[in-house]
Amino acid sequence: MNIYLVYQKYNKEFIAYAKSITQNSDRAFDLVQEAYVSALEREEMFHDMNEHQIKGWFFTTIKNKNIDFIRKQNKILLYENSILNNALSNESQDFESQVAFDNLIQKLPQKNKEVLVLRYKMLLNSREIGKILGVSPSTVRSRLSASLKMLKNKI
Questions:
Q1: Element (H, E) at 95
Q2: Spatial contact of 138 and 30, defined as CB atoms under 8 Å apart
Q3: Dihedrals φ, ψ of 115, to 5°?
Q4: Spatial separation of the C-alpha atoms in residues 142 and 67, rounded to whole Å
Q5: Count of CB atoms situated within 10 Å of the CB of 71
Q6: pTM
Q7: 146 vs 13: CA distance, rounded Å
């Protein structure tokens, strides 16, 4: 059976399942989309599968993508805490270090700079930042991750 037809037929079930494991509508939608992209990338493997096998593959892939997301978030949080403890804490940094860090932030692209300032200076979460910037919380988290990687490479 065609993966597109299975996706069309069961999309609402996939999203409901993803919501049940994430408790977040935006994240659930993203997981289902990521699973569909993975399916399209491996389309040839579905030729010998029936509808129920494809459906099962989607559920398993959604679950695994969520696990990957959680692992990535945990790594990001550990890295953010390290950055916060070493670079963003005004109490623990001398004036020269703070100026050097602020100079690094200024070299980042605007969208990355905005996310860092809103997260660490304004202390907003990804949902709040997303509303301000008009992007999804997952986009905010991606930009934060990319921004921190850029800073790590420059520090």
A1: helix 95-106
A2: yes
A3: -65, -45
A4: 16
A5: 10
A6: 0.52
A7: 32
Rounded Cα distance between 111 and 3, Å, is 36
- Distance between CA 9 and CA 17 in Å, rounded? 14
Query: Per-residue DSSP letters for 65-79?
Result: HHHHHHHHHHHHHHH
User: How far apart are the C-alpha atoms of 80 and 61, rounded to whole Å?
Assistant: 28
For the chain, the straight-line distance linking the first and the last C-alpha, in angstroms and rounded, comes to: 51
Burial class of 93 by CB neighbour count within 10 A (0 to 12, 13 to 18, 19+): middle
State whether residue 145 is helix, strand or coil.
helix
For the chain, 155 residues long, give each residue's pLDDT as a single digit of tens: 678 888 889 999 999 999 999 889 999 999 999 999 999 998 889 888 998 999 999 999 999 998 888 877 766 666 555 555 555 554 445 666 667 667 777 888 888 888 887 887 778 888 888 888 889 999 999 998 888 888 777 64
Q: What is the largest CA-CA distance in the chain?
A: 64
